[in-house]
Amino acid sequence: MSKEYETVIGLEVHVELATKTKIFCSCSTAFGGAPNTHTCPVCTGMPGSLPVLNKQVVEYAIAVGLATNCDITKNGKFDRKNYFYPDNPQNYQISQLYLPICRNGKVEIETEAGGKKFVGIHEIHMEEDAGKLVHDDWGDCSLVDFNRSGVPLIEIVSEPDMRSADEVIAYLEKLRLIIQYLGASDCKLNEGSMRADVNLSVREVGATEFGTRTEMKNLNSFKAIARAIEAERERQIDLIESGEEVIQETRRWDDDKEYSYAMRSKEDAQDYRYFPDPDLVPVIVSDEMIEEIRSRQPEFRHEKMERYAKEYGIPEYDIAMITNSKHMADIFEQTVAICNSPKKVSNWLMGETMRLLKDKNMEVEEINFSPENLAKLVALTESNTINSSVAKDVFERIFTEDIDPEKYVEENGLKTVNDEGALRSTIEKIVADNPKSVEDYKAGKTKAIGFLMGQTMRQMKGKADPGMVNEILVEILSK
Ligand code: ADP
Ligand code: MG
Ligand code: ZN
């Protein structure tokens, strides 16, 4: 009889912070500059250069710590993690081992199955990112770009509390939303501003001790994470079932081949010869500083969800979708503040906005039309100044170019024609020109009216009030 196994997972999540400058120098953190243009003696590890801590990094780390129910370390410090690698010019990374800025936190997750549970946060520490190696395609060499060297990171280390890919993704989603709401990072897995290393072991159901774990790197989408977890679980179970042992090691996941391979055996902290960085003063955090950061914390998602239900009375589905992005929620609230029609604004965001984002392969965070223009569009439809098909076209212009819909409708003559006389004469002409359809309609093929409607709308260049057209048509046809 085959045994039953439980998967045990703990995550180490690196998040690039959204500061303008690096953690220990004033170089820009902007992504995509020409290689080695955002560099100075500090972030290229020149002898004699000295690091100076960026206060904003500490503030972001504390904000994330408070939002994840951590204790804040008031007397912390930085340590050197020594290792040799060409993208690491100092031959050590400045990180925190002994006294990380945050400890003992927890976040609540909701799984797809509807369950709720807490995932413990062991610690959050601050550290610097490394440079990037560029493996030359044409020459037989590798080049190094230090633009990323010294970009601030926080590493969020969870307890081994997760038991499935589902829980892992719920946890990552939760962290992503907290950090995005704080504005501390954009948390994009595909661009590397959020990176998750998955530590995984298996054990027989009922066992009290954890099994030996492996750590998987290079996971840059939720789908890759789910696939990697499934494959690693199977691999470890196969080893155990065939009497072999799981080796504690770091493995690299290849998502195309759906296979992981050993990268290196796992280092222990002692392999890094950590010691306190003598170039940096201790990180002293006052109660006042913590309280000030606490008072600046934004309204988080679950709070927003509750308020939306009370204040706007829109369906739960809409609320979940809108609050899934702080940026979307901001647009929603600002638009409603102007036009006061929550459900209509929500419809534009969930319908056309999502459709256009998908069409144009864009992210929600890239939406950049102004709430004023969406509010004006809602007003134009509520007053029946334009009909719904014209409104869709106008919205697309708002979405792509942020045009002023009032001006646009005026300049392009898009107002709905509800001059009954003009409509009636157009319809009479169309009815006279299409005797076959009229005959069909009278013979009971009511669908024929759709064709006549279409002809009329076309003649009116889409600007007629469809309700009115229908009414007049029915009236004329039933004569
Ligand atoms: P290190 O600092 O050497 O990488 P830690 O003990 O701090 O190792 O743990 C790193 C991560 O591995 C943590 O997220 C932790 O929850 C997870 N972890 C530790 N032991 C196990 C285990 N047996 N199975 C799965 N995950 C584990
Ligand atoms: Mg580790
Ligand atoms: Zn620099």
Architecture overview:
With 479 residues, this protein is of the alpha+beta class. The chain folds into three domains: 5-289, no CATH class; 299-411, no CATH class; 420-477, Orthogonal Bundle (Arc Repressor Mutant, subunit A). It has helices at residues 55-67, 165-182, 222-241, 287-295, 301-311, 316-323, 326-339, 342-359, 371-382, 388-401, 405-411, 420-433, 435-442, 448-459, 466-477; strands spanning 5-16, 71-72, 75-76, 79-82, 92-95, 102-110, 116-128, 132-135, 142-145, 152-158, 194-204, 214-219, 249-254, 259-265, 275-276, 283-284. The strands form four sheets. Strands 2-6-7-10-1-11-12-13-14 form a nine-stranded mixed β-sheet. α12 (420-433) packs across α14 (448-459) and α13 (435-442) packs antiparallel against α14. The radius of gyration is 30 Å and the shape is elongated. Zinc ion (ZN) is lined by residues 22, 25, 27, 39-40, 42-43, 150.
Backbone shape: elongated
Strand percent estimate: 15-25%
Name the structural class.
Answer: alpha+beta
The number of distinct helices, counting runs of at least 4 residues, comes to 15
- Can you summarize the main beta sheet? 9 strands, mixed
Descriptive keywords:
binds magnesium ion; 479 residues; binds zinc ion; 16 strands; Arc Repressor Mutant, subunit A; 20% strand
Topology:
Elements: E1 5-16, H1 55-67, E2 71-72, E3 75-76, E4 79-82, E5 92-95, E6 102-110, E7 116-128, E8 132-135, E9 142-145, E10 152-158, H2 165-182, E11 194-204, E12 214-219, H3 222-241, E13 249-254, E14 259-265, E15 275-276, E16 283-284, H4 287-295, H5 301-311, H6 316-323, H7 326-339, H8 342-359, H9 371-382, H10 388-401, H11 405-411, H12 420-433, H13 435-442, H14 448-459, H15 466-477
Helix pairs in contact: 1-4, 2-3, 5-6, 7-8, 7-9, 8-10, 9-10, 12-14, 12-15, 13-14, 14-15
